[in-house]
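Quiz preparation item.
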């Protein structure tokens, strides 16, 4: 199985480039000052805050949807009983005619 991404160092500026092999596009470009001594990207507090805000934004409506689904399930038995009663009354009315 071949790798989907490769990392190379730019011979001109020593930046690290991450390239998607299949699409042949540059996914990430890190300048030498953005890397620590081990060659890993330096993560700043602002990076964490941006990621946290992005995740919070995606999951903002999930709680409301969950509550709505839970309320539907709680009243489902009553709704089915009402539907059955209406169908039964309709059947009784048809038999009397």
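Solution:
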């Amino acid at each position: 199985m071949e790798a989907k991404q490769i990392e190379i160092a730019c011979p001109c500026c020593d930046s690290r480039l991450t390239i998607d092999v299949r699409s042949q596009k540059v996914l990430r470009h890190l300048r030498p000052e953005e890397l620590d001594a081990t060659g890993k990207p330096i993560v700043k507090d602002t990076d964490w805050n941006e990621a946290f805000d992005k995740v919070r934004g995606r999951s903002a409506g999930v709680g409301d949807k969950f509550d709505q689904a839970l309320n539907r399930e709680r009243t489902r038995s009553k709704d089915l009983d009402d539907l059955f009663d209406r169908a039964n009354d309709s059947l009784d009315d048809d038999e009397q005619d």
